[in-house]
Inverse folding.
């Protein structure tokens, strides 16, 4: 085995788009990957010093859209272009935007699944950013991305994962097993 210096190579990392409103009501979007589940109905995101962070300081509501192969180019764009420097960068993406019914944040309807969230607390807040713990208020999924059981079908979504080693995006693939079942074969 080869050894490497410590790096944040925790994989897979979902590619998420954080949707907020600027102070004048303009929709803003940011690409992020350092996020995860906090509890059964909460998420955690590591936030740096971004326009999104400024927006979240003024309004604790936001949305999380999960990037797909179809939204990859525009999703990468909102990660490499700062909302502090480019006003209304969402307009350049071509995404359709509507106001959430559950939180005061934009929903980008080009994505198959969106979580509508509200910050519950900030951790280690400093000039360089903070961690947020947010409650999931609602989850929206387009009908064409539902499985026969009426729940989201991740295989249909073509979701992306961030490759922190080679700085790329990978498409999440097919189902290969059954959680909480396949391991019982070894009992």
């Amino acid at each position: 085995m080869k050894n490497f210096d410590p790096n944040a190579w925790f994989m897979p990392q979902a590619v998420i788009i954080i949707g907020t409103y600027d102070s004048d009501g303009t929709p803003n979007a940011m690409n992020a990957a350092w996020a995860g589940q906090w509890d059964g109905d909460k998420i955690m995101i590591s936030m740096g010093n971004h326009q999104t962070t400024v927006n979240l300081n003024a309004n604790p509501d936001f949305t999380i859209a999960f990037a797909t192969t179809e939204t990859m180019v525009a999703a990468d764009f909102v990660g490499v272009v700062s909302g502090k420097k480019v006003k209304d960068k969402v307009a350049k993406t071509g995404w359709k935007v509507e106001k959430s019914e559950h939180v005061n944040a934009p929903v980008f309807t080009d994505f198959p699944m969106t979580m509508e969230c509200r910050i519950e607390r900030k951790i280690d807040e400093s000039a360089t950013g903070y961690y947020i713990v947010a409650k999931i208020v609602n989850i929206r999924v387009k009908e064409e991305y539902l499985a026969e059981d009426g729940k989201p079908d991740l295989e249909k979504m073509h979701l992306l994962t961030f490759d922190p080693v080679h700085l790329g995006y990978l498409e999440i693939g097919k189902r290969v097993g059954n959680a909480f079942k396949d391991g019982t074969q070894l009992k």
Notes: The longest helix spans residues 72-80.
